[in-house]
Amino acid sequence: MNQRPVVEPGAAGAAEAGPGPGTGALRRPIVAANWKMNLGPSRAAAFFAAFRLGPNVSRVRLQFFVPAVSLAAARTAAKVAAEFGIQNVHWEREGALTGETSAEMAREAGVALALVGHSERRHVFGETDAEVARKTRAVSRAGLTPVVCVGERLEERRAGRLEEVLRRQVGAFVGALAGAKEWMVAYEPVWAIGTGETATPQDAFEAHEIVRAALGEAGPGPILYGGSVKPGNAAELLGVHGVDGVLVGGASLDPAEFAGIVAAAT
Ligand code: 13P
What is the CATH number of the domain that holds 195? Predict the structure, then answer.
């Protein structure tokens, strides 16, 4: 494995991190909230009413992946400069597909980004690599930024299959990034999601190196880390070479906790 330092000098100054492959100097760190199936419209509005950010927040690129039904309320209530995203799309533009939402419809509703292939989509809803690729292509076609999620299960890591799994997952959608004006990838080890167990800086560094190498032909793009990110570990994770941002689940539901993570990134 690469011998470069795992942690950038001045870890909390991730905005100055790099240059490294895919880590542009002066790129703003990304702090993204994935609310999952939490916070309906009234609680989304209450979140933003209580969400207070400190100074230097313009140094961070702030994103919220909210439930589709909370989008309008969240956008109206947000007093901060933030981008909004949808958590899942179907690859068709429209049709007899009860319960689904297309990327084009999401864009019309004011969405700029879409999560694709989140661990829960893959493992709870059985989404395949091929479906992840189709969705990535659909999101790009609609002019939205795909944020494609990858990550290994604990048994895969223990079996020494980390690199194989990440290369397979990235290999399935990398060609679908070609039409995207912008894209991001989130590395979220399944064993760290919602468990309180976080990847060590070394784990995150190694996995991000693998993902970046697998993305090769797609060129540089931000790679986020996700999995039990909290105010207390965010600065350390954001200081890891090659970690361009964080994707936060549980801790993004509490305005003070999420503001603490944003503060750690500034
Ligand atoms: P937690 O931060 O709750 O572990 O969730 C991570 C995640 O899945 C973000 O997409």
Answer: 3.20.20.70
